[in-house]
Protein backbone atom coordinates (compact mmCIF):
# COMPACT_ATOMS: atom_id res chain seq x y z
CA UNK A 1 0.00 0.00 0.00
CA UNK A 2 1.24 3.45 -0.96
CA UNK A 3 -0.27 5.13 2.08
CA UNK A 4 1.71 5.59 5.24
CA UNK A 5 0.61 2.98 7.76
CA UNK A 6 -1.75 5.09 9.82
CA UNK A 7 -3.84 6.06 6.79
CA UNK A 8 -4.84 2.44 6.36
CA UNK A 9 -6.35 2.54 9.83
CA UNK A 10 -10.14 2.21 9.71
CA UNK A 11 -10.77 4.85 12.37
CA UNK A 12 -8.36 7.35 10.84
CA UNK A 13 -9.97 6.94 7.41
CA UNK A 14 -13.41 7.48 8.87
CA UNK A 15 -12.31 10.58 10.76
CA UNK A 16 -10.57 12.08 7.73
CA UNK A 17 -13.58 11.59 5.46
CA UNK A 18 -15.93 12.84 8.17
CA UNK A 19 -13.83 15.89 8.95
CA UNK A 20 -13.56 16.91 5.31
CA UNK A 21 -17.32 16.50 4.76
CA UNK A 22 -17.97 18.59 7.84
CA UNK A 23 -15.55 21.24 6.59
CA UNK A 24 -17.23 21.44 3.17
CA UNK A 25 -20.67 21.78 4.69
CA UNK A 26 -19.91 24.24 7.46
CA UNK A 27 -17.68 26.28 5.13
CA UNK A 28 -20.45 26.75 2.57
CA UNK A 29 -23.23 27.54 5.03
CA UNK A 30 -20.92 29.60 7.23
CA UNK A 31 -20.59 32.14 4.39
CA UNK A 32 -24.26 32.98 4.67
CA UNK A 33 -24.15 33.04 8.47
CA UNK A 34 -21.16 35.41 8.47
CA UNK A 35 -22.55 37.70 5.75
CA UNK A 36 -25.94 37.85 7.45
CA UNK A 37 -23.99 38.98 10.51
CA UNK A 38 -25.24 35.93 12.37
CA UNK A 39 -21.85 34.45 13.21
CA UNK A 40 -22.93 33.90 16.78
CA UNK A 41 -26.02 32.03 15.67
CA UNK A 42 -23.82 28.97 15.12
CA UNK A 43 -22.50 29.34 18.67
CA UNK A 44 -25.99 29.63 20.13
CA UNK A 45 -27.23 26.67 18.09
CA UNK A 46 -24.35 24.40 19.11
CA UNK A 47 -24.60 25.23 22.82
CA UNK A 48 -28.36 24.81 22.61
CA UNK A 49 -27.87 21.32 21.21
CA UNK A 50 -26.55 19.94 24.51
CA UNK A 51 -29.91 19.65 26.34
CA UNK A 52 -31.34 18.10 23.16
CA UNK A 53 -28.67 15.40 23.26
CA UNK A 54 -29.30 14.77 26.95
CA UNK A 55 -33.09 14.61 26.56
CA UNK A 56 -32.75 12.33 23.54
CA UNK A 57 -30.66 9.99 25.70
CA UNK A 58 -33.07 10.17 28.66
CA UNK A 59 -36.11 9.46 26.50
CA UNK A 60 -34.71 6.63 24.42
CA UNK A 61 -31.93 5.38 26.67
CA UNK A 62 -29.72 4.97 23.63
CA UNK A 63 -26.43 6.41 22.48
CA UNK A 64 -27.36 5.94 18.85
CA UNK A 65 -26.12 8.96 16.95
CA UNK A 66 -29.27 9.59 14.91
CA UNK A 67 -31.39 9.81 18.08
CA UNK A 68 -28.99 12.13 19.87
CA UNK A 69 -28.59 14.38 16.81
CA UNK A 70 -32.34 14.57 16.30
CA UNK A 71 -32.62 15.76 19.89
CA UNK A 72 -29.84 18.26 19.22
CA UNK A 73 -31.61 19.57 16.10
CA UNK A 74 -34.93 20.01 17.90
CA UNK A 75 -33.23 21.89 20.74
CA UNK A 76 -31.31 24.03 18.22
CA UNK A 77 -34.48 24.96 16.37
CA UNK A 78 -36.20 25.82 19.67
CA UNK A 79 -33.28 28.06 20.59
CA UNK A 80 -33.42 29.75 17.17
CA UNK A 81 -37.15 30.38 17.65
CA UNK A 82 -36.48 31.81 21.11
CA UNK A 83 -33.90 34.17 19.59
CA UNK A 84 -36.33 35.34 16.91
CA UNK A 85 -39.07 35.78 19.50
CA UNK A 86 -36.80 37.75 21.85
CA UNK A 87 -35.59 40.13 19.14
CA UNK A 88 -39.08 40.69 17.73
CA UNK A 89 -41.08 40.92 20.96
CA UNK A 90 -38.65 42.59 23.33
CA UNK A 91 -36.29 45.51 23.10
CA UNK A 92 -33.30 43.17 23.16
CA UNK A 93 -30.87 43.36 20.28
CA UNK A 94 -29.78 40.20 18.49
CA UNK A 95 -26.49 39.83 20.39
CA UNK A 96 -28.24 39.93 23.76
CA UNK A 97 -30.93 37.52 22.59
CA UNK A 98 -28.27 35.11 21.28
CA UNK A 99 -26.39 35.32 24.57
CA UNK A 100 -29.51 34.60 26.62
CA UNK A 101 -30.59 31.64 24.48
CA UNK A 102 -27.05 30.24 24.42
CA UNK A 103 -26.49 30.33 28.18
CA UNK A 104 -30.02 29.22 29.07
CA UNK A 105 -29.90 26.12 26.88
CA UNK A 106 -26.31 25.30 27.77
CA UNK A 107 -27.07 25.54 31.50
CA UNK A 108 -30.02 23.17 31.10
CA UNK A 109 -27.77 20.86 29.12
CA UNK A 110 -25.07 20.79 31.80
CA UNK A 111 -27.64 20.15 34.55
CA UNK A 112 -29.09 17.23 32.59
CA UNK A 113 -25.64 15.91 31.76
CA UNK A 114 -24.49 15.83 35.39
CA UNK A 115 -27.82 14.26 36.32
CA UNK A 116 -27.30 11.49 33.77
CA UNK A 117 -23.74 10.89 34.90
CA UNK A 118 -24.86 10.32 38.48
CA UNK A 119 -27.42 7.69 37.46
CA UNK A 120 -24.87 4.90 37.28
CA UNK A 121 -25.94 3.56 33.92
CA UNK A 122 -23.36 1.75 31.84
CA UNK A 123 -24.36 3.27 28.49
CA UNK A 124 -24.23 6.82 29.79
CA UNK A 125 -20.48 6.89 29.52
CA UNK A 126 -19.24 9.13 26.78
CA UNK A 127 -22.18 11.51 26.57
CA UNK A 128 -19.93 14.28 27.83
CA UNK A 129 -17.74 13.62 24.78
CA UNK A 130 -20.17 15.95 23.00
CA UNK A 131 -18.77 18.85 25.01
CA UNK A 132 -15.41 18.79 23.22
CA UNK A 133 -16.06 16.19 20.57
CA UNK A 134 -14.66 12.70 20.19
CA UNK A 135 -13.81 11.97 16.60
CA UNK A 136 -12.51 8.50 17.31
CA UNK A 137 -16.00 7.43 18.37
CA UNK A 138 -17.21 8.03 14.84
CA UNK A 139 -18.51 5.01 12.96
CA UNK A 140 -18.54 4.44 9.23
CA UNK A 141 -22.34 4.55 9.17
CA UNK A 142 -22.16 8.02 10.75
CA UNK A 143 -20.51 9.19 7.55
CA UNK A 144 -23.81 8.64 5.76
CA UNK A 145 -25.49 11.21 7.98
CA UNK A 146 -22.64 13.69 7.37
CA UNK A 147 -22.66 12.98 3.64
CA UNK A 148 -26.42 13.36 3.28
CA UNK A 149 -26.50 16.68 5.14
CA UNK A 150 -23.54 18.02 3.16
CA UNK A 151 -25.05 16.97 -0.18
CA UNK A 152 -28.42 18.48 0.74
CA UNK A 153 -26.79 21.74 1.82
CA UNK A 154 -24.81 22.04 -1.41
CA UNK A 155 -27.82 21.15 -3.56
CA UNK A 156 -29.91 23.82 -1.83
CA UNK A 157 -27.19 26.45 -2.14
CA UNK A 158 -26.78 25.73 -5.86
CA UNK A 159 -30.53 25.62 -6.55
CA UNK A 160 -31.44 28.77 -4.64
CA UNK A 161 -28.19 30.63 -5.26
CA UNK A 162 -29.61 33.94 -6.45
CA UNK A 163 -32.43 33.87 -3.91
CA UNK A 164 -30.06 33.23 -0.99
CA UNK A 165 -27.76 35.94 -2.29
CA UNK A 166 -30.37 38.69 -2.53
CA UNK A 167 -31.99 37.66 0.79
CA UNK A 168 -28.58 37.88 2.46
CA UNK A 169 -27.64 41.22 0.86
CA UNK A 170 -30.95 43.09 0.97
CA UNK A 171 -33.89 41.22 2.53
CA UNK A 172 -36.30 44.16 2.14
CA UNK A 173 -35.64 44.39 -1.58
CA UNK A 174 -35.92 40.61 -1.91
CA UNK A 175 -39.30 40.80 -0.24
CA UNK A 176 -40.41 43.59 -2.60
CA UNK A 177 -39.53 41.27 -5.50
CA UNK A 178 -42.07 38.82 -4.12
CA UNK A 179 -39.58 36.27 -2.81
CA UNK A 180 -40.71 34.32 0.27
CA UNK A 181 -37.99 35.86 2.44
CA UNK A 182 -39.06 34.29 5.73
CA UNK A 183 -39.19 30.80 4.19
CA UNK A 184 -35.74 31.26 2.63
CA UNK A 185 -34.35 32.50 5.94
CA UNK A 186 -35.84 29.49 7.71
CA UNK A 187 -34.23 27.14 5.18
CA UNK A 188 -30.85 28.84 5.63
CA UNK A 189 -31.06 28.80 9.43
CA UNK A 190 -32.20 25.16 9.48
CA UNK A 191 -29.30 24.17 7.25
CA UNK A 192 -26.85 26.04 9.50
CA UNK A 193 -28.38 24.23 12.48
CA UNK A 194 -27.95 20.90 10.67
CA UNK A 195 -24.33 21.69 9.87
CA UNK A 196 -23.74 22.49 13.54
CA UNK A 197 -25.45 19.32 14.69
CA UNK A 198 -23.49 16.97 12.45
CA UNK A 199 -20.26 18.53 13.73
CA UNK A 200 -21.05 18.03 17.41
CA UNK A 201 -19.72 14.49 17.59
CA UNK A 202 -16.40 15.48 16.07
CA UNK A 203 -15.76 19.04 17.23
CA UNK A 204 -18.07 19.34 20.23
CA UNK A 205 -20.62 21.82 21.49
CA UNK A 206 -18.11 24.35 22.74
CA UNK A 207 -15.96 24.74 19.62
CA UNK A 208 -18.41 24.00 16.81
CA UNK A 209 -19.16 27.69 16.15
CA UNK A 210 -15.57 28.10 14.94
CA UNK A 211 -16.25 25.64 12.10
CA UNK A 212 -19.10 27.87 10.89
CA UNK A 213 -17.29 31.19 11.29
CA UNK A 214 -13.59 30.52 10.62
CA UNK A 215 -13.57 29.15 7.03
CA UNK A 216 -15.98 31.86 5.86
CA UNK A 217 -14.09 34.61 7.67
CA UNK A 218 -10.79 33.46 6.15
CA UNK A 219 -12.32 33.18 2.67
CA UNK A 220 -13.83 36.67 2.90
CA UNK A 221 -10.32 38.13 3.12
CA UNK A 222 -9.30 36.87 -0.31
CA UNK A 223 -12.15 37.77 -2.61
CA UNK A 224 -14.82 40.27 -3.60
CA UNK A 225 -17.13 37.67 -5.12
CA UNK A 226 -19.62 35.55 -3.24
CA UNK A 227 -19.05 32.57 -5.58
CA UNK A 228 -15.32 32.57 -4.91
CA UNK A 229 -15.83 33.14 -1.21
CA UNK A 230 -18.09 30.10 -0.99
CA UNK A 231 -15.67 27.81 -2.83
CA UNK A 232 -12.70 29.07 -0.81
CA UNK A 233 -14.58 28.61 2.45
CA UNK A 234 -15.37 25.02 1.49
CA UNK A 235 -11.72 24.40 0.63
CA UNK A 236 -10.55 26.00 3.89
CA UNK A 237 -13.11 23.96 5.84
CA UNK A 238 -12.05 20.69 4.22
CA UNK A 239 -8.34 21.48 4.60
CA UNK A 240 -8.86 22.27 8.30
CA UNK A 241 -10.77 19.03 8.78
CA UNK A 242 -8.20 16.87 7.05
CA UNK A 243 -5.22 18.59 8.67
CA UNK A 244 -6.76 18.34 12.13
CA UNK A 245 -7.56 14.66 11.61
CA UNK A 246 -4.05 13.89 10.34
CA UNK A 247 -2.36 15.80 13.16
CA UNK A 248 -4.36 14.00 15.80
CA UNK A 249 -3.52 10.62 14.29
CA UNK A 250 0.20 11.32 14.67
CA UNK A 251 0.23 10.76 18.40
CA UNK A 252 -2.06 9.39 21.07
CA UNK A 253 -4.02 11.82 23.17
CA UNK A 254 -4.32 14.63 20.64
CA UNK A 255 -7.95 15.71 20.42
CA UNK A 256 -9.18 15.92 16.81
CA UNK A 257 -11.88 18.60 17.23
CA UNK A 258 -9.67 21.25 18.82
CA UNK A 259 -6.93 20.51 16.25
CA UNK A 260 -9.39 21.06 13.40
CA UNK A 261 -10.48 24.36 14.98
CA UNK A 262 -6.85 25.37 15.55
CA UNK A 263 -6.06 24.74 11.87
CA UNK A 264 -9.10 26.77 10.79
CA UNK A 265 -8.11 29.60 13.14
CA UNK A 266 -4.59 29.48 11.75
CA UNK A 267 -6.04 29.97 8.27
CA UNK A 268 -8.05 32.95 9.53
CA UNK A 269 -4.97 34.52 11.07
CA UNK A 270 -2.92 33.93 7.94
CA UNK A 271 -5.67 35.40 5.76
CA UNK A 272 -6.14 38.47 7.91
CA UNK A 273 -2.41 39.15 7.79
CA UNK A 274 -1.49 38.24 4.24
CA UNK A 275 -4.57 38.31 2.01
CA UNK A 276 -4.30 40.46 -1.10
CA UNK A 277 -6.36 43.66 -1.03
CA UNK A 278 -7.92 43.15 2.43
CA UNK A 279 -5.01 41.70 4.41
CA UNK A 280 -3.21 43.84 6.98
CA UNK A 281 0.17 43.50 5.27
CA UNK A 282 -1.18 44.31 1.80
CA UNK A 283 -3.15 47.28 3.15
CA UNK A 284 -0.08 48.61 4.95
CA UNK A 285 2.12 48.30 1.85
CA UNK A 286 -0.61 49.85 -0.25
CA UNK A 287 -1.02 52.75 2.19
CA UNK A 288 2.75 53.35 2.20
CA UNK A 289 2.85 53.36 -1.57
CA UNK A 290 -0.13 55.72 -1.72
CA UNK A 291 1.59 58.04 0.73
CA UNK A 292 4.82 58.06 -1.28
CA UNK A 293 2.77 58.68 -4.39
CA UNK A 294 1.04 61.60 -2.75
CA UNK A 295 4.35 63.16 -1.69
CA UNK A 296 5.66 62.74 -5.25
CA UNK A 297 2.62 64.52 -6.67
CA UNK A 298 2.94 67.21 -4.04
CA UNK A 299 6.60 67.84 -4.92
CA UNK A 300 5.71 68.04 -8.60
CA UNK A 301 2.99 70.63 -8.04
CA UNK A 302 5.29 72.62 -5.75
CA UNK A 303 7.86 72.78 -8.54
CA UNK A 304 5.10 73.83 -10.91
CA UNK A 305 3.89 76.60 -8.61
CA UNK A 306 7.43 77.87 -8.06
CA UNK A 307 7.88 78.08 -11.83
CA UNK A 308 4.57 79.85 -12.10
CA UNK A 309 5.46 82.38 -9.41
CA UNK A 310 8.70 83.16 -11.17
CA UNK A 311 6.97 83.36 -14.57
CA UNK A 312 9.56 80.93 -15.84
CA UNK A 313 8.62 77.43 -17.01
CA UNK A 314 12.31 76.51 -16.91
CA UNK A 315 12.71 77.67 -13.32
CA UNK A 316 15.45 75.74 -11.50
CA UNK A 317 14.43 74.49 -8.06
CA UNK A 318 17.21 73.66 -5.69
CA UNK A 319 17.12 70.07 -4.42
CA UNK A 320 18.27 71.19 -0.96
CA UNK A 321 15.19 73.38 -0.66
CA UNK A 322 12.86 70.50 -1.52
CA UNK A 323 14.63 68.27 1.00
CA UNK A 324 14.54 70.89 3.74
CA UNK A 325 10.78 71.00 3.31
CA UNK A 326 9.88 67.32 2.66
CA UNK A 327 12.79 65.61 4.41
CA UNK A 328 14.29 62.50 2.90
CA UNK A 329 10.93 61.77 1.18
CA UNK A 330 11.77 64.77 -1.01
CA UNK A 331 14.86 63.00 -2.37
CA UNK A 332 12.85 59.87 -3.15
CA UNK A 333 10.11 61.93 -4.77
CA UNK A 334 12.59 63.79 -7.02
CA UNK A 335 14.28 60.61 -8.22
CA UNK A 336 10.84 59.07 -8.85
CA UNK A 337 9.81 62.17 -10.84
CA UNK A 338 13.11 61.97 -12.73
CA UNK A 339 12.41 58.31 -13.53
CA UNK A 340 8.95 59.24 -14.81
CA UNK A 341 10.46 61.95 -16.98
CA UNK A 342 8.61 64.79 -15.28
CA UNK A 343 11.74 66.62 -14.12
CA UNK A 344 15.34 66.80 -15.26
CA UNK A 345 18.44 67.81 -13.32
CA UNK A 346 20.15 71.11 -14.14
CA UNK A 347 23.21 73.00 -12.91
CA UNK A 348 22.57 76.47 -11.66
CA UNK A 349 25.96 77.63 -10.53
CA UNK A 350 29.01 75.43 -10.21
CA UNK A 351 29.34 75.81 -6.47
CA UNK A 352 25.71 75.01 -5.72
CA UNK A 353 23.91 71.64 -5.39
CA UNK A 354 21.64 69.93 -7.91
CA UNK A 355 18.71 71.88 -9.31
CA UNK A 356 15.62 70.51 -11.08
CA UNK A 357 13.64 71.77 -14.08
CA UNK A 358 10.16 70.63 -15.04
CA UNK A 359 9.89 68.86 -18.38
CA UNK A 360 6.96 69.49 -20.74
CA UNK A 361 5.42 66.22 -19.57
CA UNK A 362 5.94 67.32 -15.96
CA UNK A 363 4.12 70.59 -16.55
CA UNK A 364 1.22 68.73 -18.13
CA UNK A 365 1.05 66.23 -15.26
CA UNK A 366 1.19 69.00 -12.63
CA UNK A 367 -1.65 70.81 -14.36
CA UNK A 368 -3.65 67.58 -14.48
CA UNK A 369 -3.14 67.01 -10.75
CA UNK A 370 -4.08 70.57 -9.85
CA UNK A 371 -7.17 70.44 -12.05
CA UNK A 372 -8.28 67.16 -10.46
CA UNK A 373 -8.24 68.86 -7.06
CA UNK A 374 -11.03 71.21 -8.12
CA UNK A 375 -13.47 69.03 -10.00
CA UNK A 376 -15.65 71.23 -12.16
CA UNK A 377 -19.29 70.29 -11.61
CA UNK A 378 -20.94 69.30 -14.81
CA UNK B 1 -53.78 38.68 4.80
CA UNK B 2 -57.23 37.87 6.23
CA UNK B 3 -60.06 39.02 4.03
CA UNK B 4 -62.83 38.46 6.55
CA UNK B 5 -62.76 41.80 8.29
CA UNK B 6 -65.14 44.75 8.21
CA UNK B 7 -62.83 46.66 5.87
CA UNK B 8 -62.90 44.02 3.19
CA UNK B 9 -66.62 43.43 3.65
CA UNK B 10 -67.23 47.11 3.02
CA UNK B 11 -65.14 47.26 -0.11
CA UNK B 12 -66.93 44.16 -1.37
CA UNK B 13 -70.24 45.97 -1.01
CA UNK B 14 -68.85 48.86 -2.93
CA UNK B 15 -67.56 46.66 -5.72
CA UNK B 16 -70.96 45.02 -6.03
CA UNK B 17 -72.42 48.33 -7.05
CA UNK B 18 -69.59 49.38 -9.33
CA UNK B 19 -69.28 48.06 -12.85
CA UNK B 20 -65.51 47.93 -12.59
CA UNK B 21 -64.46 45.25 -10.10
CA UNK B 22 -61.29 47.15 -9.35
CA UNK B 23 -61.01 49.67 -6.56
CA UNK B 24 -60.15 53.22 -7.64
CA UNK B 25 -58.51 52.02 -10.88
CA UNK B 26 -57.70 55.55 -11.99
CA UNK B 27 -55.27 56.09 -9.15
CA UNK B 28 -51.73 54.76 -9.29
CA UNK B 29 -51.72 54.31 -5.52
CA UNK B 30 -54.76 54.23 -3.31
CA UNK B 31 -54.26 53.69 0.41
CA UNK B 32 -57.27 53.27 2.68
CA UNK B 33 -57.46 53.62 6.47
CA UNK B 34 -53.90 52.40 6.95
CA UNK B 35 -52.77 52.12 10.57
CA UNK B 36 -49.40 50.76 11.66
CA UNK B 37 -48.06 50.44 15.17
CA UNK B 38 -44.82 49.28 16.72
CA UNK B 39 -46.03 47.70 19.93
CA UNK B 40 -48.64 50.05 21.35
CA UNK B 41 -47.19 53.15 19.72
CA UNK B 42 -48.99 54.11 16.53
CA UNK B 43 -46.55 55.05 13.79
CA UNK B 44 -49.14 55.68 11.09
CA UNK B 45 -52.72 56.56 11.96
CA UNK B 46 -55.63 56.15 9.62
CA UNK B 47 -53.78 57.05 6.45
CA UNK B 48 -55.85 57.71 3.34
CA UNK B 49 -53.51 58.49 0.50
CA UNK B 50 -54.20 58.87 -3.21
CA UNK B 51 -51.49 59.39 -5.78
CA UNK B 52 -52.50 59.80 -9.43
CA UNK B 53 -50.43 58.18 -12.20
CA UNK B 54 -47.65 60.08 -13.90
CA UNK B 55 -46.58 62.32 -11.05
CA UNK B 56 -43.30 62.85 -9.27
CA UNK B 57 -44.45 62.79 -5.66
CA UNK B 58 -42.61 63.65 -2.45
CA UNK B 59 -43.44 62.35 0.99
CA UNK B 60 -42.19 64.87 3.54
CA UNK B 61 -42.48 65.13 7.29
CA UNK B 62 -40.32 65.47 10.39
CA UNK B 63 -38.14 62.65 11.75
CA UNK B 64 -40.31 59.85 13.10
CA UNK B 65 -43.28 60.94 11.01
CA UNK B 66 -43.51 57.45 9.52
CA UNK B 67 -42.34 58.26 5.98
CA UNK B 68 -40.25 55.10 5.50
CA UNK B 69 -42.83 53.05 7.37
CA UNK B 70 -45.50 54.26 4.96
CA UNK B 71 -43.72 53.08 1.84
CA UNK B 72 -42.56 49.87 3.49
CA UNK B 73 -46.16 49.12 4.46
CA UNK B 74 -47.39 49.90 0.96
CA UNK B 75 -44.77 47.43 -0.30
CA UNK B 76 -45.92 44.77 2.15
CA UNK B 77 -42.65 44.78 4.11
CA UNK B 78 -44.49 45.80 7.27
CA UNK B 79 -47.85 44.33 8.15
CA UNK B 80 -50.39 47.03 9.02
CA UNK B 81 -52.76 46.80 11.98
CA UNK B 82 -55.53 47.83 9.60
CA UNK B 83 -56.05 49.19 6.12
CA UNK B 84 -55.67 48.40 2.46
CA UNK B 85 -53.34 49.25 -0.38
CA UNK B 86 -54.42 49.29 -4.00
CA UNK B 87 -52.05 49.67 -6.94
CA UNK B 88 -53.92 50.64 -10.10
CA UNK B 89 -57.09 49.41 -8.46
CA UNK B 90 -55.87 45.97 -7.38
CA UNK B 91 -54.30 44.74 -4.15
CA UNK B 92 -50.53 45.15 -4.05
CA UNK B 93 -50.03 41.36 -3.97
CA UNK B 94 -51.39 41.07 -7.52
CA UNK B 95 -49.48 44.07 -8.84
CA UNK B 96 -46.01 43.41 -7.47
CA UNK B 97 -44.44 43.32 -10.94
CA UNK B 98 -45.59 46.90 -11.52
CA UNK B 99 -43.69 48.20 -8.53
CA UNK B 100 -39.99 49.03 -8.16
CA UNK B 101 -38.25 49.84 -4.89
CA UNK B 102 -35.15 51.77 -3.86
CA UNK B 103 -34.48 51.13 -0.16
CA UNK B 104 -32.43 53.49 1.99
CA UNK B 105 -28.81 53.18 0.98
CA UNK B 106 -27.72 52.62 4.57
CA UNK B 107 -30.06 49.65 5.01
CA UNK B 108 -27.55 47.18 3.54
CA UNK B 109 -23.97 46.18 4.27
CA UNK B 110 -21.95 47.60 1.37
CA UNK B 111 -19.03 45.36 2.29
CA UNK B 112 -20.97 42.44 0.81
CA UNK B 113 -18.74 40.54 -1.66
CA UNK B 114 -20.31 41.52 -4.96
CA UNK B 115 -20.00 43.94 -7.87
CA UNK B 116 -22.12 46.89 -8.98
CA UNK B 117 -23.36 44.94 -12.02
CA UNK B 118 -24.37 42.01 -9.84
CA UNK B 119 -26.38 44.25 -7.51
CA UNK B 120 -28.19 45.78 -10.49
CA UNK B 121 -29.05 42.37 -11.92
CA UNK B 122 -30.77 41.54 -8.61
CA UNK B 123 -33.58 43.77 -9.92
CA UNK B 124 -34.31 41.02 -12.47
CA UNK B 125 -34.47 38.13 -9.99
CA UNK B 126 -38.23 38.50 -9.49
CA UNK B 127 -38.87 38.18 -13.22
CA UNK B 128 -36.42 35.32 -13.69
CA UNK B 129 -38.28 32.98 -11.39
CA UNK B 130 -36.90 30.00 -9.49
CA UNK B 131 -33.81 28.06 -10.59
CA UNK B 132 -32.98 30.35 -13.52
CA UNK B 133 -29.67 32.16 -13.45
CA UNK B 134 -29.21 35.62 -14.95
CA UNK B 135 -27.68 35.10 -18.41
CA UNK B 136 -26.35 37.24 -21.23
CA UNK B 137 -29.62 39.10 -21.78
CA UNK B 138 -29.93 39.98 -18.09
CA UNK B 139 -26.33 41.18 -18.06
CA UNK B 140 -27.04 43.45 -21.05
CA UNK B 141 -30.07 44.95 -19.35
CA UNK B 142 -28.19 45.51 -16.11
CA UNK B 143 -25.38 47.22 -18.06
CA UNK B 144 -27.91 49.42 -19.87
CA UNK B 145 -29.38 50.47 -16.52
CA UNK B 146 -25.91 51.29 -15.20
CA UNK B 147 -25.35 53.33 -18.36
CA UNK B 148 -28.54 55.31 -17.63
CA UNK B 149 -27.15 56.37 -14.25
CA UNK B 150 -23.70 57.06 -15.74
CA UNK B 151 -22.07 54.19 -13.91
CA UNK B 152 -21.21 51.73 -16.68
CA UNK B 153 -17.48 52.16 -16.10
CA UNK B 154 -17.99 50.92 -12.53
CA UNK B 155 -19.80 47.71 -13.50
CA UNK B 156 -17.11 45.36 -12.18
CA UNK B 157 -16.21 47.48 -9.18
CA UNK B 158 -16.65 45.90 -5.77
CA UNK B 159 -19.50 47.82 -4.14
CA UNK B 160 -17.58 48.82 -1.01
CA UNK B 161 -15.19 50.78 -3.24
CA UNK B 162 -17.98 53.04 -4.50
CA UNK B 163 -18.70 56.44 -2.98
CA UNK B 164 -22.04 57.08 -1.32
CA UNK B 165 -23.41 58.82 -4.39
CA UNK B 166 -22.24 55.98 -6.64
CA UNK B 167 -23.84 53.40 -4.35
CA UNK B 168 -27.07 55.36 -4.54
CA UNK B 169 -26.89 55.32 -8.34
CA UNK B 170 -26.37 51.55 -8.28
CA UNK B 171 -29.53 51.20 -6.21
CA UNK B 172 -31.36 53.42 -8.66
CA UNK B 173 -30.13 51.32 -11.59
CA UNK B 174 -31.34 48.18 -9.82
CA UNK B 175 -34.81 49.74 -9.67
CA UNK B 176 -34.67 50.91 -13.31
CA UNK B 177 -33.92 47.38 -14.46
CA UNK B 178 -37.17 46.29 -12.81
CA UNK B 179 -38.95 48.22 -15.59
CA UNK B 180 -41.70 49.04 -13.13
CA UNK B 181 -44.66 51.35 -13.52
CA UNK B 182 -44.60 52.77 -10.01
CA UNK B 183 -41.41 53.45 -8.06
CA UNK B 184 -40.99 53.91 -4.33
CA UNK B 185 -37.70 55.46 -3.28
CA UNK B 186 -36.57 55.92 0.30
CA UNK B 187 -34.41 59.05 0.54
CA UNK B 188 -32.52 58.57 -2.73
CA UNK B 189 -30.94 61.98 -2.32
CA UNK B 190 -29.74 61.58 1.26
CA UNK B 191 -26.02 62.11 1.68
CA UNK B 192 -25.17 62.48 -2.01
CA UNK B 193 -23.25 65.37 -3.55
CA UNK B 194 -24.90 68.06 -5.63
CA UNK B 195 -23.86 66.50 -8.96
CA UNK B 196 -25.37 63.13 -8.05
CA UNK B 197 -28.52 64.79 -6.74
CA UNK B 198 -29.00 66.57 -10.07
CA UNK B 199 -28.33 63.36 -11.99
CA UNK B 200 -30.87 61.49 -9.86
CA UNK B 201 -33.60 64.11 -10.23
CA UNK B 202 -33.04 64.11 -13.99
CA UNK B 203 -33.66 60.35 -14.07
CA UNK B 204 -36.76 60.70 -11.90
CA UNK B 205 -38.11 63.37 -14.23
CA UNK B 206 -37.50 61.13 -17.23
CA UNK B 207 -39.45 58.35 -15.52
CA UNK B 208 -42.31 60.75 -14.85
CA UNK B 209 -42.25 61.92 -18.46
CA UNK B 210 -42.70 58.27 -19.48
CA UNK B 211 -45.93 58.46 -17.45
CA UNK B 212 -44.50 56.42 -14.60
CA UNK B 213 -45.35 57.29 -11.02
CA UNK B 214 -42.44 58.04 -8.71
CA UNK B 215 -42.91 58.38 -4.95
CA UNK B 216 -39.90 59.69 -3.07
CA UNK B 217 -39.31 60.06 0.65
CA UNK B 218 -37.66 63.46 0.72
CA UNK B 219 -35.89 65.42 3.41
CA UNK B 220 -34.92 68.72 1.87
CA UNK B 221 -37.84 71.14 1.99
CA UNK B 222 -35.84 73.70 -0.01
CA UNK B 223 -36.03 71.63 -3.20
CA UNK B 224 -39.65 70.42 -2.99
CA UNK B 225 -41.11 73.04 -5.32
CA UNK B 226 -38.41 72.67 -7.97
CA UNK B 227 -38.31 68.86 -7.98
CA UNK B 228 -41.83 67.59 -7.36
CA UNK B 229 -45.32 68.13 -8.68
CA UNK B 230 -47.21 66.15 -6.04
CA UNK B 231 -46.73 66.10 -2.30
CA UNK B 232 -47.84 64.17 0.76
CA UNK B 233 -47.17 65.94 4.05
CA UNK B 234 -47.06 63.39 6.82
CA UNK B 235 -46.74 63.28 10.57
CA UNK B 236 -48.24 59.99 11.76
CA UNK B 237 -51.44 61.24 10.12
CA UNK B 238 -51.74 62.79 6.69
CA UNK B 239 -51.48 66.56 7.15
CA UNK B 240 -52.09 67.43 3.52
CA UNK B 241 -51.79 65.87 0.07
CA UNK B 242 -52.22 67.17 -3.43
CA UNK B 243 -50.36 69.05 -6.09
CA UNK B 244 -47.38 71.01 -4.78
CA UNK B 245 -48.94 74.20 -6.08
CA UNK B 246 -52.08 73.65 -4.01
CA UNK B 247 -50.99 72.22 -0.69
CA UNK B 248 -47.34 73.11 -0.11
CA UNK B 249 -48.08 75.96 2.28
CA UNK B 250 -46.44 77.27 5.42
CA UNK B 251 -49.63 76.46 7.28
CA UNK B 252 -49.46 72.79 6.39
CA UNK B 253 -45.75 72.61 7.12
CA UNK B 254 -46.34 74.19 10.49
CA UNK B 255 -48.99 71.59 11.20
CA UNK B 256 -46.52 68.82 10.34
CA UNK B 257 -43.30 70.17 11.77
CA UNK B 258 -44.62 72.20 14.73
CA UNK B 259 -42.04 74.47 16.28
CA UNK B 260 -39.31 73.30 13.92
CA UNK B 261 -40.93 75.28 11.13
CA UNK B 262 -40.01 78.63 12.71
CA UNK B 263 -36.58 78.11 11.28
CA UNK B 264 -37.95 77.51 7.81
CA UNK B 265 -40.53 80.26 7.68
CA UNK B 266 -38.12 83.04 6.86
CA UNK B 267 -37.17 81.24 3.66
CA UNK B 268 -39.23 81.99 0.61
CA UNK B 269 -39.93 78.57 -0.75
CA UNK B 270 -43.55 78.01 0.24
CA UNK B 271 -46.50 79.35 -1.64
CA UNK B 272 -47.84 81.92 0.81
CA UNK B 273 -44.50 83.44 1.62
CA UNK B 274 -43.57 83.81 -2.01
CA UNK B 275 -46.38 86.27 -2.75
Characterize this entry briefly:
The complex is a heterodimer of chains A (378) and B (275). Chain A has 378 residues and is an all-alpha fold. In chain A, 74% of the residues lie in helices and 3% in strands.
What does this structure look like?
The complex is a heterodimer of chains A (378) and B (275). Chain A is built from 16 helices and 3 strands. Chain A is mostly helical and 378 residues long. Chain A folds into 2 domains: 5-266, Orthogonal Bundle (ABC transporter involved in vitamin B12 uptake, BtuC); 282-372, Orthogonal Bundle (Arc Repressor Mutant, subunit A), CATH 1.10.10.10. Chain A has a 3-stranded antiparallel sheet. The longest helix of chain A is centred in the C-terminal third of the chain and has 30 residues, at 280-309. The radius of gyration of chain A is 30 Å and the shape is elongated. The model of chain A has no long low-confidence stretch (mean pLDDT 88). Chain B is globular. The longest helix of chain B has 16 residues, at 194-209. By secondary structure, chain B is α/β, with parallel strands linked by helices. The relative contact order of chain B is 0.15. In chain B, α5 crosses α6 (164-176). Chain B has one domain (26-274): Rossmann fold (3-Layer(aba) Sandwich), CATH 3.40.50.300. Classes of the chains: A mainly alpha (378), B alpha/beta (275). The interface between A and B is medium-sized, with 29 and 29 residues.
